[in-house]
Design goal:
Blueprint (H helix, E strand, L loop, with lengths): L6 H10 L4 H8 L3 H8 L7 H11 L3 H5 L1 H15 L11 H10 L1 H15 L12 H5 L2 H11 L5 H14 L6 H13 L2 E5 L9 E4 L4 E5 L4 H25 L6 H20 L2 H10 L4 H8 L3 H8 L12 E7 L4 E6 L16 H4 L8 E6 L5 E10 L7 E2 L2 E2 L3 E9 L20 E3 L42
Parallel strand pairs: 1-3, 6-11
Antiparallel strand pairs: 2-3, 4-5, 4-10, 6-7, 7-10, 8-9
Helix pairs in contact: 2-3, 6-7, 6-8, 7-8, 10-14, 11-14, 12-13, 13-14, 16-17
Length: about 475
């Protein structure tokens, strides 16, 4: 097994238990000097010792071995430190990695402080809420909440399966079946209504009249999704409250988390775990097949693939990103290990941005991060899911976004879209990064700003594709 370093985490666990190094060493059956070397990251920990520590301290092994958490924290800190306000301090990537390895709590505190700074958060008046809680956007907090749980909620999976079992539901009659469930079990009447009756709304539920209205502008996958979403709140509200309670810092974050959990339940109803993962494996993750078989949209099928983390029956660990044409990231999740931008602009070379150049066409790419990991990615544009759009002047605007789905390169052969590709051919690899400010590839033709890792050194006698390319001379 590959040895890992857990010094900072182990030291924090020991301090939380108010134990000296000698006391914890005795508890673990190792020498105090060996424990000291582990805590200072001068001695890596093998898997055998890691298991022993987890057993003695009664903690989940993932608490210690979660390298992905360290990578995310490192990436987030590097991105935050790329802000020009830190430019004169010359912080190196190695400095950040050492901080994360030894003092992760300090790293999280610095991120909270940066969020407060970037959002203009101040607490000079002595408010009871901390600056950190004021600075956390609900959308960011909920994204972290879902990421920490690997986008898998077993209780909601079981609730969706129970709904199928108790109500004789079938895939190809899912919409009328869910309407029947709403009427018979919850006395809710459903109506698909003309767009002019509910402008700017896609779903509206009146708890007094127990009437659920769904806009005709929603295509069938969207209508089914909203029916299941409503059942989540009617049948499983206590469960949604319990899952979100105490995990978030504001009522707004909790409300958004409940909505995200209801969406999770809706996807599990549309695409039941066992059937969906079997279809994914047999079709080799063919998104067209999955859409057709389960009556789902492209985005729904992609998102469901990221939730297949049931222990003993896992799917490929995917990452997912959704962006608009301006480059804003509105949805992100990573089980593949890839790091995504959180502060400011993202790397423009990601496959998901290229999708806007070929609307409706699936794009395939092999991408490589600066640290070396490579990923197999597919991307495609999608409409808003409505059969219409907001009218702007004489034209009706169509809201278009792009969905990117990807995995570590060693999973690519299990995916139909990799057929015929020479995945080990360096000519097909696209170098990418998290953002221009954190990327060390100063010679990139798409670079929009100089990198944090190198001082800007412009040669007035030369001009590359990017004004910052000369920094690599």
């Amino acid at each position: 097994m590959t040895p890992i370093q857990i010094g900072g985490k182990l030291r924090r666990l020991r301090q939380e238990r108010r134990l000296t190094q000698a006391q914890m060493a005795a508890e673990l059956g190792i020498s105090p000097s060996y424990l000291n070397l582990i805590e200072s990251n001068r001695r890596p920990v093998t898997a055998r010792v890691l298991l022993q520590i987890a057993d003695k301290l009664k903690i989940d092994i993932g608490t210690l071995s979660g390298a992905g958490d360290d990578e995310r924290l490192t990436s987030d800190l590097m991105e935050a430190l790329s802000d020009p306000v830190f430019e004169e301090h010359d912080v190196k990537a190695s400095d950040v990695r050492e901080l994360v390895a030894t003092l992760p709590a300090v790293g999280h505190a610095l991120l909270a402080l940066y969020r407060s700074h970037s959002l203009g958060g101040h607490n000079a008046g002595g408010d009871t809420k901390s600056e950190a809680s004021l600075a956390v956007l609900p959308s960011e907090e909920v994204s972290d909440f879902i990421q920490q749980r690997l986008n898998h909620f077993p209780d909601l999976e079981r609730a969706a399966e129970k709904l199928w079992q108790e109500n004789d539901i079938a895939v190809h009659t899912l919409q009328p079946d869910l309407i029947r469930v709403l009427a018979q079990r919850y006395a809710v009447q459903v109506e698909i209504v003309p767009a002019e009756r509910m402008p700017n709304l896609l779903r509206s539920y009146n708890p007094l009249t127990r009437r659920l209205e769904i806009s005709e502008l929603l295509a069938q996958p969207g209508r089914i999704f909203q029916l299941a979403h409503q059942i989540a709140f009617l049948a499983h509200r206590p469960q949604l409250d319990l899952l979100a309670a105490g995990k978030l810092t504001s009522p707004g974050s909790e409300a958004l988390a409940r909505s995200a959990l209801a969406n999770y339940f809706a996807a599990a109803v549309m695409m039941p775990y066992g059937r969906f993962i079997e279809a994914a494996r047999t079709s080799r993750y063919d998104l067209d097949v999955l859409q057709a078989r389960f009556g789902a949209s492209f985005e729904q099928a992609c998102h469901r693939l990221t939730t297949l983390r049931r222990p003993g029956d896992e799917g490929i660990p995917f990452h997912l990103i959704r962006v608009d044409i301006a480059g804003n990231i509105s949805k992100r999740f990573s089980a593949s290990g890839i790091q995504m931008a959180r502060f400011g602009a993202a790397c423009p070379r990601w496959n998901v941005y290229d999708a806007f150049a070929t609307p409706g066409m699936l794009r395939v790419a092999v991408s490589q991060m600066p640290e070396g990991p490579s990923y197999f990615c597919v991307a495609r544009t999608v409409s808003s899911g409505r059969q219409g759009g907001e009218r702007r002047g004489l034209q009706r605007r169509v809201e278009t976004q792009a969905i990117g789905l990807g995995c570590a390169i060693h999973h690519a052969r299990s995916i139909v879209y990799a057929d015929g590709l020479q995945l080990d051919d360096p000519k097909i690899v696209t170098p990418i990064g998290v953002s221009c400010r954190t990327c060390p590839r100063n010679a990139c033709a798409d670079r929009a700003s100089p990198g944090l890792s190198q001082k800007l050194d412009i040669d007035e006698n030369t001009r590359g594709y990017s004004p910052y390319m000369a920094a690599d001379k």
